[in-house]
Specification:
Largest sheet: 8 strands, mixed
Number of helices: 22
Bound molecules: 5'-O-[(S)-butoxy(hydroxy)phosphoryl]adenosine
Number of strands: 30
Structural class: alpha/beta
Strand content: 15-25%
Radius of gyration: 25 Å
């Protein structure tokens, strides 16, 4: 009889057989000739012999108030500490230090979703004025102090980076919650971070509709109260300054329009506070294996050095460039590669309020043409959507990209090629950047002028980082063997999160629990576990195949199965729920929910109740594509729900041997029900990628 290991080996072998290694594609000489980083010596400087001192090169891109004495303190793994003894301020580094030479340079060109509305063009000097005045207001009116946490729930408006930088100026840790998340999700994050101030906006545009956002603040405050946290002030930025765009009432002596009170602080200046390198700059919540999102805490010195270095070398932004990252600042991509990295290097960026396909899929290319964007940054899900909705659109516009980034999920080689040939017109270097909320910045990618592109593989480890693929027993899987395993990083780097806010044990467990030699004080014994499965080619290039934990990556956003399930369980008729990923051509994965009902309840409203509950509790991005009502869920004899079995059914793959289950008969019944419904609606995946099969196989049970 085959044991567990044999089974894994067979499937890994099969995957290898199906994967054709793609050919290298080299950047144009035009690109190489102008790049910031085209010096091959950089590999030696960042080589293992020069670790960890190599990261000085990134830290030296910053302005320090006090230089550090120790590059890496690794005496208490995995709580690594970078640039110890150094002091700096992130707001100073992103704004003030550019004033002398580049005060008049554009920091942001903000583009409204409404095409007829004028841009807002903000120079570094104007940004400095806004940040100072708002910092003065925060200090005086909101009473925030160094060391506090403040929650933000803002859409894509210039006031969002202004707010982040004003808080950073004061040494207050910000926690921006993605604007599309629900009020209740925001409330939970307020509780976890113990924030007493909420900063939000009254409204923003989504696909042409001005959405009321203030109502979410009321829900968030309500939810926070249930969790024992009283929000003392809600500061509301107006979408149209001087005018209210919400019908939600402002609560007396709690809610204030910033635009009404900022006038009092006109001309005020606030000295940036000099902070130790390990002062927490921000929290960013992300999903994991439990229902409770994790507050990833990022440092000031290590994080800022890492995003500045990677922006300079990998985004390769030059002073004359126009850079546009189409992500939302509410995700880590926006924090690192719209706000902190680009501002720290003094870049001119585009900030876009809207969605890429409104009013039509030509919108991004019109913006690029009009503003002269030459560096473009987006996610595979957006590329797939634009390709489907307007395959020939890019050719109609006269823009010229020299560099294009993709981020957030694996990109299929055919999608990569459309991006390269059609969007980039065969001239732009494509940089596939693999990283996570936890890692602060890129961990696997290519230096665009020095390392060739390989469609579908992100590239080797980023400078100074040594990735390694480990099997379940902790043995190294040799590059080029074609076998998949757990993607790990063997050494610490400055951008990595410091801890999970309020839960250091969970931090150690989640990222180091699997392989670390717990008694060792050597960093070499503490590989960082990404939670992704992947392979490594002989050339060192990594190909991520998907999550190995119970996380579903929907359009580049992580959703925990537990989070989805606990939201579904708020519907009182539901007895049990299991969330699994289903393959989706545009979004990569979409969640499907399997639920069994309590005895004797009416099933007619269940689907809409579950979808509604998930949208309200987490946000519309988490809305399941299907809700399947079943008499029971497949379980092991010890009572664990076998998500792998139902995920196989949802994706039309073989469910494998189910005879050892406690209730094998239910599998056939569910399969019949789900697959015949899917056949009827034509929702049958044509070509299920091998990586998806692999992901299903690893999908958790409990
Ligand atoms: C997970 C992290 C990093 C910012 C956006 C998402 C997947 C991310 C890639 C890529 C293949 C990728 C991984 C990772 N992922 N980038 N270039 N190729 N997979 O941040 O929400 O923390 O998600 O996204 O599975 O673990 P996140």
């Amino acid at each position: 009889m085959a044991n567990q290991n044999d089974k894994t080996d067979v499937s890994e072998g099969q995957i290898a057989a199906h994967w054709k290694e793609e050919e290298f594609i080299f950047p144009t000489t035009g690109f190489v000739g102008q790049a910031n980083m085209a010096d091959p010596n950089v590999f030696e400087r960042f080589g293992e012999d020069n670790y960890p001192e190599c990261f000085r090169e990134y830290a030296d891109l910053l302005s320090w108030d006090q230089y550090w004495h120790t590059t890496l303190d690794s005496s208490n793994p995995p709580f690594f500490n970078w640039f110890v003894g150094g002091k700096l301020n992130a707001s100073y580094n992103c704004v003030d230090r550019h004033l002398e030479k580049n005060g008049n340079k554009v920091a942001f060109t903000w583009v409204s979703e409404i095409e007829e509305e004028p841009d807002r063009v903000i120079s570094y000097r104007e940004l400095w004025v806004m940040v100072n005045e708002f910092a003065a207001l925060l200090k005086d009116f909101a009473g925030v102090k160094t060391g506090d946490r403040v929650t933000l729930h803002m859409p894509m408006v210039p006031e969002l980076p202004v707010t982040m930088l004003a808080l950073a100026r004061l040494g207050v840790t910000h926690s921006q919650v993605f604007g599309g998340f629900s009020g209740s999700a925001c409330g939970d994050r307020i509780v976890d971070s113990e924030s007493h101030i909420l900063i939000t906006s009254d409204a923003y545009y989504r696909s042409g509709t001005l959405l009321d956002h203030k109502s979410k603040a009321d829900e968030a405050v309500e939810q926070a109260k249930k969790g024992g946290i009283e929000v003392k002030k809600v500061l509301v930025w107006q979408r149209y300054p001087g005018k209210s765009s919400t019908s939600t009432a402002m609560k007396n002596s709690r809610d204030y329009y910033v635009n009404d009170i900022i006038g009092k602080y006109r001309g005020h200046r606030v000295e940036p506070i000099s902070l130790p390198a390990d002062h927490p700059l921000f929290l960013m919540y992300t999903s994991g294996t439990t229902a409770k999102p994790k507050g990833c805490q990022h440092s000031t010195g290590g994080y800022l050095a890492y995003v500045t270095g990677t922006t300079q070398y990998y985004q390769d932004i030059r002073p004359e460039d126009v850079y546009w990252c189409m992500a939302d600042i509410g995700w880590i991509t926006g924090h690192s590669y719209i706000v902190y990295g680009p501002l720290s290097v003094g870049a001119s960026s585009v900030l876009f309020e809207g969605v890429p396909n409104y009013p039509d899929p030509g919108r991004p290319w019109r913006i690029a043409e009009r503003l002269g964007v030459n560096i473009f940054h987006t996610a595979p899900t957006t590329i797939r959507m634009l390709r489907k909705a307007g395959p020939d659109e890019p050719a109609k516009y006269d823009y010229n990209f020299k560099h294009m980034t993709t981020v957030g999920e694996p990109i299929e080689p055919e999608v990569w090629r459309w991006y390269y040939d059609v969007v980039g017109k065969g001239k732009a270097a494509v940089v596939d950047t693999y990283w996570q909320t936890e890692t602060g910045g890129f961990i696997g990618t290519t230096l665009p002028a020095l390392e060739p592109m390989k469609p579908g593989s992100c590239g080797p480890g980023a400078l100074g980082i040594v990735p390694v693929i480990l099997d379940d027993d902790g043995n190294k899987i040799e590059p080029g063997s074609g076998k998949a395993g757990n993607v790990c990083m063997s050494n610490p780097w400055p951008g990595r999160m410091q801890t999970i806010y309020g839960d250091p044990d969970r931090f150690v467990d989640t990222y180091y629990g699997k392989y670390a030699k717990k008694d060792s004080k050597k960093w070499e014994d503490w590989p960082y576990v990404t939670g992704d499965g992947g392979t490594q080619g002989e050339d060192g290039y990594i190909r991520v195949v998907g999550r190995v934990d119970d996380v579903i990556n929907v359009a580049g956003h992580r959703l925990g199965t537990k989070e989805l399930e606990s939201a579904a369980l708020t519907v009182s008729e539901i007895g049990e729920a299991a969330a699994v990923p289903a393959f989706d051509e545009l979004k990569g994965r979409v969640p499907e929910l399997y639920v069994s009902l309590k005895p004797g309840v009416d099933s007619s409203e269940i689907e809409s109740l579950v979808k509604g509950a998930i949208s309200t509790i987490i946000g519309p991005i988490a809305r399941p594509s299907e809700v399947w009502i079943t008499s029971d869920l497949p379980k092991t004899r010890s009572g664990k729900i076998m998500r792998r079995v139902i995920a196989s059914i949802s994706n039309f793959v073989d469910v494998g041997d189910v005879t050892t289950l406690a209730n094998p008969e239910v599998v056939e019944e569910i399969k019949e029900h789900v697959q015949s419904a899917k056949f009827k609606s034509g929702n049958v995946p044509k070509d299920l990628p091998e990586s998806m099969k692999k992901e299903i196989e690893r999908f958790g049970e409990d």
